[in-house]
């Protein structure tokens, strides 16, 4: 049961990072253009699926709360402020997404809200990951790092890095879904964003070496862990090839593979810890009776149903978004 719920949590996190990542990225890129027809096209590229994407965040919260209450309590105590800011950002972008179509005079306000909400949500998610990687101050399993213990140069760097990664994922989705000038702009953005992400990864790796993070010792002891970074490097080379040849369907899949390799790298680096080097999967798990009770609802009904729903929705809306008159 513990391994089952660990797998459910890992899949849910990965799906959220990928699916909500590209529409957060489009929200970040949304602020870089003032052309209304292009903004409309960008929103049309995500409007059929963005609500479903954020549902996976709810699944993550439910699984943590029910299956791993120790981790849930620790994360809520440590990251109360960044998680609150993330939720406010998601709420703002959701409201702005709907309200911008209801007004003309104040549309610019909701446009700013949509872009700012997307940036804040992505930035806070990156800060949270960076703080976890750097390490949290725990005393007898309880967080004692203070209200701003999560804030550091490394966590801020990770926040910026995730914003760049989401923007790259968003540009790749635009290439996949759009045509005309909107697609041409995205083609030009991908090399720049990919270069920024590569620079970010190099800086993070150098920082981790100089800071002597505990995880680096695991890498030297377990060479097989380099499989995931190697897969990401290969995907990055293939991405350069796809951009050169203008292969519409390749960039998003390759950037998704880069994200999956980064996720796999983090997971294998800290396994079996859920809170790095303090709380293991087995320590954090709820009693077997609770895990079994959840299995009959969330495990064999809700989670599989959401997977099927997600697959069907992306299959139904798999076509291209036709450009508007101003984007031809």
List keywords for this structure.
about 325 residues; two-stranded antiparallel ribbon; 4 strands; single chain; mainly alpha; about 75% helix; 13 helices; globular
Walk me through the topology:
Elements: H1 2-30, H2 36-46, H3 50-67, H4 69-78, H5 80-99, H6 107-134, E1 138-139, E2 142-143, H7 153-177, H8 180-211, H9 215-221, H10 227-245, H11 250-270, E3 273-275, E4 279-280, H12 281-284, H13 288-316
Describe the structure.
This protein has 328 residues and is an all-alpha fold. 77% of the residues lie in helices and 3% in strands. It has 13 helices and four strands. A two-stranded antiparallel ribbon has the order 1-2. A two-stranded antiparallel ribbon has the order 3-4.
* Overall SS class: mainly alpha
Oligomer status:
single chain
Q: What is the 3D form?
A: globular
Question: How would you characterize the largest beta sheet?
Answer: 2 strands, antiparallel
Indicate how many domains the architecture comprises: 1
Question: What portion of residues belong to β-strands?
Answer: under 5%
On the 0 to 100 scale, the average pLDDT is 85
Taking Cα atoms only, what radius of gyration do you get, to the nearest Å?
A: 20 Å
What proportion of the residues is helical, as a percent range?
Answer: over 70%
Low-pLDDT runs: none
Give, in order, the helices and strands.
Answer: HHHHHHEEHHHHHEEHH
Count of separate DSSP helical elements: 13
For the secondary structure, the number of strands is 4
Lateral strand order in the biggest sheet = 1-2
Q: Roughly how many Å apart are the termini?
A: 54 Å
